[in-house]
Amino acid sequence: SRIAVIGDSTFFHSGITGLLNVVYNQSNVITIIADNRTTGMTGHQDHPGTGRTLMGKETVAIDLEQLCRACGITEVVRVDPYLIKETRNTIRRLLNIKKPAVVISQRSCALISARPGAPKKVDAEICSGCRSCLALGCPALSFEQEKALIISTACIGCGMCVEICPKGAIL
């Protein structure tokens, strides 16, 4: 199995043809579409999935799930990437089916959405220094003096680090 990751805007712009080729060639590929309802890499413009034109006029919002099914994908699953265990289990399940699949990982863009919670903190007394939290790749997570550290000004309060910490050291 192979895994491909693409943003929603890029998928609409140029990824659909790749998905069609996955279906046509019966490739064992899981395509993960990071659906944040914006074009983050160029300034947060709308795209065909947002329901607004670039001029701000309301229009039809193309449904990613329906589009993927219309391309011939029978296994299309929506996940909330903040629910790490559920997302991992979904991907593991799809890796075992040995046919094309799509995971729509849907969550609003962290750069433009309201903070879901207060910035998190690390209890240095509990932190074992295992570095599990660093696997998230979160820009707010750092490591100093053999302990995890959260940069409060960069933390959006999503809580993913709380979920992944095996010691319960992130509050």
Automatic annotation (TrEMBL):
Pfam families named in the record: Fer4_10 (PF13237), TPP_enzyme_C (PF02775)
A GO term, aspect molecular function: iron-sulfur cluster binding
Coiled-coil region(s): none
UniProt KW Iron keyword: yes
Domain of life from the UniProt record: Bacteria
Boundaries of every 4Fe-4S ferredoxin-type domain copy: 117-139, 146-171
UniProt-listed InterPro entries: 4Fe4S_Fe-S-bd, 4Fe4S_Fe_S_CS, HACL1-like, THDP-binding, TPP_enzyme_TPP-bd
Alphabetic keyword roster: Iron, Iron-sulfur, Metal-binding
PANTHER family: 2-HYDROXYACYL-COA LYASE (PTHR43710), INDOLEPYRUVATE OXIDOREDUCTASE SUBUNIT IORA (PTHR43710:SF7)
Protein name, per record: 4Fe-4S dicluster domain-containing protein
